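Our platform keeps sequence and structure together, in a single record for each protein. Because each token names a local backbone shape, the row as a whole describes the fold. One such record is reproduced below, unchanged from the form in which we store it:
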Amino acid sequence: SHFLLPTSFILNGTRLVDEVARMYESSPGMQNFQDNVPEHGCMTRSELARLMVAIIRLAAKTGTYQLARVAMANLRLPSYRGENTENTKIEQHWDALNLNDPSAVRMYIMEVARLYPPVNCVHHVSTVELTVRIAGQTQTFPAGTLLLVPLVLGNLDRGIWGPTTFEFDPQRPELESQFMGFNSVGDQHCGRTCPGKELTLDIVATMLQVLGETRRRKRADCIPVAQSCGI
């Protein structure tokens, strides 16, 4: 959290929050919102706009924080039934990473997020009647049904990622083009991809590079001392 503190100051600026809230409030998507309606909690359009900003701030902080912790081996990968993912030595991959190669650093972060996505589900409200097969049976849902979309399952689908799905491999083919962690499939989406995607990737990449170089320097400084002590 110490290294994310500057980001929290940026996100917590009251003036900036008000500016963003005003943008939401004046957006076309909110023009039909009616103030003081009981089923909407009697909120005003201004209050709703600030609530939306608060949600985005929360996602920006917690999502980036989790991703950075896993990438720097401060949080283990999840335990998936029948797999050995949680025993992955992330610190070894970080130490072997070419910190001067932006593409390699980006793919490293993407692979961390594939196996442990900060956001593992999104939702969708169907606009038409929807018929699907569930457990071998046909089910029909009316328009307006709230659907949960488990992005994490797409990132763990052996049909896409093959037999090494639960292994950590930043060099796996089609990693970025098939990645589903930002409300999209690669760069393909329906106009609602994660707005913080590039900011999050840039923040975590900078942290990995700066702290990775510091970590390596400290380890290199310790080697002569250890050798002189016969260790």
